[in-house]
Amino acid sequence: MTMGKMTALAFGLVGGFALGVWTGPHLMQRPDRDESAVHQTVAVPEAEHPRDVILESKQARAARAAAARTAAARTAHVNVDAPALQQRLKPVLNRGANMAVAADGFRSAEQFATVAHAARNTEVPFMVLKHRVLNEGKSLAQAIRESKPAIDAANEASQARAQARSDIAAIAG
Q1: Is the domain of 101 the same as that of 136?
Q2: Domain range spanning residue 156?
Q3: Which of 34, 93, 102, 139 sits most deeply, having the most CB atoms within 10 A of its CB?
């Protein structure tokens, strides 16, 4: 290959790259795709009076707080390291699991039991769910969704929570 041909080839490659850099953003921002539709107009209904909005939000917060207190009163308090809880959850976890390591880091027995039941129900490794819930701060449904996107993560988390509450009620009652 002669020096002239090599120079022409190099200029052609550099020119093609520059053309791609210049036209790439214009080709990738298509209005028919959701992620590129930045300037969508959203209709926000106007409030009748700002005071009504404030009162409504205070009432909603009060209702949520009352529901949380009721739920907390319904669930009995059991320590995460309680032998009865660990004995009850041992069959839920994999055979040979170290219960002290499994229970480490959970704030409540219900949280521990919920993650254990979710791991069993979804066949996602317990330590993966535990890491995502405790270390990454994700909800159980988000952790399940990341591991198995094909299943209904919210339903699985709800079912695991019900099973955990049943276990704790059986221990405490």
Answers
A1: yes
A2: 83-172
A3: 102
Q: 109-122 and 140-147 are packed helices; what angle lies between their axes, rounded to 10 degrees?
A: 20
What is the spatial distance between Cα 129 and Cα 89, in angstroms, rounded to a whole number?
A: 16
pLDDT at 38: 47
Q: State how far the Cα of 56 lies from the Cα of 52, in Å rounded to an integer.
A: 6
Q: How far is CA 109 from the centre of its chain?
A: 20
Whether residue 125 sits in one domain with residue 62: no
Let me know if residue 89 belongs to a domain: yes
Query: Would you tell me how many other CB atoms lie within 10 Å of the CB of residue 147?
Result: 18
Residue (of 87, 103, 101) closest to 167 by Cα position: 87
Q: Characterize 25-34 residue by residue with b for buried, 16 or more Cβ atoms within 10 angstroms of its Cβ, and e for exposed.
A: eeeeeeeeee
Interval 86-129: pLDDT, tens = 778 888 888 878 888 888 888 888 888 899 999 999 999 989 99
